[in-house]
Specification:
This protein is of the alpha+beta class. The chain contains four helices and 13 strands. Strand 3 and strand 4 form a beta hairpin.
Length: 228
């Protein structure tokens, strides 16, 4: 399956994140489960720390009636330098009753094997943190500022940028024209398959524009830790 690579940076805060992920899907009756395979690395260069994290599974529920999506499974976060690690559990909604989008977490100091913080709440709502000192902290994610993306106009984007590549599919979906969207999607995918067959016949490897392979993963070609 195709691998997705993504990279974000904030030069003002001296931090960046690089991740790669591919998916495995399975049907489960009225649901589809998608496992996110891969990992990300958050770099805090001010502290010279790297936090390696995994990603939760995603589930599309009630696919034949009113579909909705939730996250599930365990995520690990680990920092070798500090010796701290965290386990975050995304709880799927019970069949009867129960809340959606519930999450619990524990932060452990591995050298002393002590739990220094616990968290619970909803990942898209209110989260409460309780520290070993007895201090508590509450974060309401719904009150965090949302900053709109700034993107180049479609006509100035490269031929393989998503918004330009999928613009016909997107506009058809916005108009509610599923048949036209499906036709454009099929045409686009067939073109990509033909390009792949052509590369295979000429023994030409696909070379990504922004990411290079390192070990089992993919890394942005000029991350902040290289250019800083």
């Amino acid at each position: 399956p195709p691998v997705s690579g993504f990279y974000c940076e904030c030069k003002e805060r001296n931090m960046c994140v690089n991740a790669h992920v591919w998916t495995k899907s399975k049907f489960m009756g009225m649901s589809i489960g998608v496992s996110m395979i891969g990992e990300g690395v958050l770099c805090l260069m001010e502290h010279d720390e790297e936090y390696v994290f995994t990603l939760p599974c995603a589930y599309a529920r009630s696919i034949l009636t009113v579909p909705w999506v939730e996250l599930g499974g365990k995520v690990s976060i680990n920092c070798v330098k500090t010796g701290y690690s965290a386990t975050v559990t995304f709880h799927t909604k019970p069949f009867y009753g129960g809340k959606v989008h519930r999450v619990t977490a524990e932060v452990k100091h591995n050298p002393t094997n002590t739990i220094v913080c616990k968290a619970q709440g909803e990942w898209n709502g209110t989260l409460e943190f309780t520290y070993s000192s007895g201090e508590t902290k509450v974060i309401d994610t719904t009150k965090l500022p949302i900053i709109r993306k700034k993107i180049r106009p479609v006509e100035r984007q490269g031929p393989y940028e998503s918004r330009r590549l999928w613009q016909d599919v997107t506009s058809a979906l916005k108009e509610g024209n599923i048949d036209t969207a499906t036709e454009h999607k099929h045409r686009l995918e067939e073109r990509q398959r033909a390009e792949e067959r052509q590369r295979a016949s000429s023994n030409t490897p696909w070379k990504p524009q922004y990411f290079v392979k390192e070990g089992d993963g993919w890394v942005y070609h000029s991350p902040l830790w290289k250019t800083h």
